Amino acid sequence: MLQLISAIPTIIAAASKVSELFKKGRDTVKAVTGDPSQASTPEELQTEVQQLSPEQQNRWAEVMAKEVDKYTAQNERLAVEIGLVDANITSRVSEDAASKIAIMRMTTRPWSVRCMVLYVLFPFFLVIIDMLQHLMIAWLPFLDRWIDPFNSFEYVFGVMKWPEKINAGTLEKLAVLFAGKGGPATFAGQLYMESIPWVVSIILGYMGLREVGKWRGSADKAPEGVLGGAKSSPVSVVAQTLSEGVNLVSNVRSWFNKKK
Amino acid sequence: MASRDLKDLVPEAGEKALLVQQACKEAVGFDLLIYCTLRPLEEQARLYRQSRSRKEIDAKMVKLSRRGFDYLANVIESVGPCYGRHVTNAAPGESWHNYGEAWDAVPLIGGKPEWNYLHAKAFWDAYGEAVRQVGMNWAGDWTGFREYPHAQLKTGGNPLKTMGPEEIELALVERKLIAPEMIA
Question: What Cα–Cα distance (Å) separates residue B75 from each residue in A212, B40, B68, B78, B79?
C-alpha cells in the first residue's frame, strides 16, 4: 500500500482553506474508524487523524489525497472552461502544461452538444426503459401494488405506462411513435424526426472541428502555436488581471513571511 | 443594524482583521473596507424573516426548538413581520457574524468599493490570501457558494452545526449578545 501518512499536513492545510474538504475529512474519519468525527477545526481534525492507527491514517490520507486532487482538477478545469486561462496565459506556461490545457479544452463538449447527444438517443432510452419495465414485471411480480396507481395516470405516460403482463407489442408501439409506415404516428414524433438531421449535423460538425483541433494540437509545435496566435492576440483584461493576481498574492505572502 | 466596528469582533478576529487590512495596504496598496462585523441576532432574524412566508418561519422555529434553541426561535418571533428581498439563508445563530467571529470586506479601488470579483480578481485574491495567511477561512475558497467578501475564524458554514448547544449559549452570553435570562 502506498504510504501517504507524510501527506497528512498538506491535506489538512488544504482542508483548512476549503470547508467542503474539511467536511470530507470528517466524513472520511467516520468511514475509516466507524465513529463520527468530533473535530470542529482543522487543528482538531489533524489531532484526530494523528491519533488513528498507522493503517487508518494511511487509508484516510489515501481517500483525502484523491479528494484534494479532484478539487484542484475541478478548479483548474473551471478556469479553463470559463476562459480565465486564455492564450496569453498559456503562452507563458511550459509547453507541456499548455498542451494539457489544450487537450482539456478540446475534450470538453459544450453543454448544448451534450444535450443534443441525449436528444438523439431519446428513442433508445425509451426502448431501454421498456425493457427494464418488462424485466421487472417478469421477475418482481409483487411490484403490482405500486404499478397500479402509476398506471392510473395513463393519459400522462401513454405507452410508457407499466405493462400488466409481458407484452411483446410495446416495442412496435414505440417504433410507430418515431417511424410508422406513413411517417411518425404523432406530431411530436414528426417534429423529432424532422429535427434529427439538423441536430446530427451540428454534433458531427462540432466533433469534426474538434478532431481538426486535436490534430493541430498534437503536432510538435510551441504552445502558442497549439492554442493559436498567443503572441499576436491582444492581452485580455482577464489574463492581465489573472497574471497581476498572481503577483499580488505573492506580495501578500512575502509581506507575511517578512512579518514572521 | 449590523456593526462595522472591529471592536465588536472577538479579540482574535479583531486582531486578524487589522492585520489583513494592513497587509492589503502595505503589500498591495489598496484599502480594505470591512463593512460588516457583528450582526445582532435580532438583525439576523429580520433579514431571515423578510423574504419568507409564515409557514417557512414557523418550520424554522420548530426546528430550532427541537434542537434546544428555543431562545433563538423566540428571537425570530420577537422581531415581528418584515418584508424585503431574499438576502440570507441563515436564521439567527446560524451565521458566524452573530458571534463576532466573521467579517465581510470589499477592496476599495480608487476610493470606490469594487464589488465584482471578476473586475478586480487580483485584489480579491490578494485579500483572500491575506485572510488565509492569518489562519482564517475565506469564503471565496468555498466550492458550493462562494462569498468573496466573507471571512470567518472557524470552518463550517453553520455555527449551530459546528458548536454544541452549551458552547453556543456560552458564546452568546459571554459576548453579551443575548441576556442570560432569555436562555433560561
Answer: 64, 10, 14, 5, 7
